[in-house]
Structures are given as C-alpha cells and as structure tokens.
Amino acid sequence: MNIKERASKIKMILMDVDGTLTDGTLAVLPDGEELKSYYVRDGMGILMAHLMGLKTGIITGKKSKALEKRAIKLYISELHQGIFNKKQTLEEICRKHELDFQEIAYIGDDLGDLSVIKVAGLSAAVADAHPEIKKHSHMICSLYGGKGAVREFIDIILESQGYTWDAIEEKFIALWTKNNTI
Ligand SMILES: [Mg+2]
Hints:
The chain is built from eight helices and eight strands; from the N terminus they run αβββαβαβαβαβαβαα. By secondary structure, it is α/β, with parallel strands linked by helices. It has a single domain (3-23, 33-179), classed as Rossmann fold (3-Layer(aba) Sandwich), CATH 3.40.50. The strands form two sheets. A six-stranded parallel sheet has the order 5-4-1-6-7-8, with helices on both faces. Strands 2-3 form a two-stranded antiparallel sheet. Strand 4, helix 3 (65-73) and strand 5 form a beta-alpha-beta unit. Helix 2 (40-51) runs parallel beside helix 7 (149-160). It is globular, with a radius of gyration of 16 Å. The protein starts with a helix and ends with a helix. The structure holds magnesium ion.
C-alpha cells in the first residue's frame, strides 16, 4: 500500500509531544516547571483535521499542565500523559473508539514511539527524528518537529482523503461565523 492508500483509511491522528509537536528543547525553571513552545501551524492542522471529521490524540511520556490547556484549546479528544508503554495506550484508544490500527496515523521522533510506529496504519517520522524511527516509518516529513512536521502530516492525510483547501476553508468560515473564534 502506498502513502495515499494508507492515508485514505485514517480516522484518528495520534501524536507524540517532545520533539514532534515541539522542537524537543526544554527550558527548566527554578521550580522544576518545564517550558516548551508549540507551533501555530501544527495547531491549525489539528483543528483542520477535526473540522473534516477526524479525531486526534496525544500520547506522551512526560506530564505538563500547559499541554492539558493546549489540548483543550485544540479540542484534542485523547490526551495520555506519563505513558511508558505507548502501544498499550494505542490499544486502549482503539478499543474505546472501535478503531483498527489501520485507521490510526501516528507521528513521532524517538525510540519511545517505535512500538506504535511499527503497527499504525500510517506512521511518520519528523525530519530530525532518530534514525531508527525513520527506518520504520511509512514516511519521513520534510519539516522538523515543532516546526511544521505535524501540519505536513495532517495536510497529506486530508489531501489523500479528497478534501480540497476550498472545502476546509468553507468549514472554517462557518465555524468562525458561528462562534466568532476558532
Ligand atoms: Mg518525542
């Protein structure tokens, strides 16, 4: 199966955080709290996926209160933090939503992602992922983690599912008109 065929079956997009939705850098404050930066175009891609009927989720090894807030703001339905065994969490998510692995897309950057990368219907490595992740992913993004790789992945999925930019824009305008925000 090629990327387009795999992408056409996807119903949920799952993502790693550090090094995938962020560039992997952490600023550690004196109280131990960690600061990270997220990329606006990735967030837009996540909203676009929801508007076109896809579900999204996050599986991360770390725990962050700021991430909880970002996930709520972006309407991410599955947020799993402090996860060591990501494949086990994937199985739980699939059971809950009655999805097969073939209907899951996953994007990651490092060894903690490997067990999911190997079984997801469509898997992607960010451009600066660990070589082992690149080796086992169906595709390698041209953009880096925290710098648009997630958006690139979502764009490919939406395009493969036949959604045009006009159709996506139309949905955005409808949502904006209804809520005066997105
Ligand atoms: Mg990572």
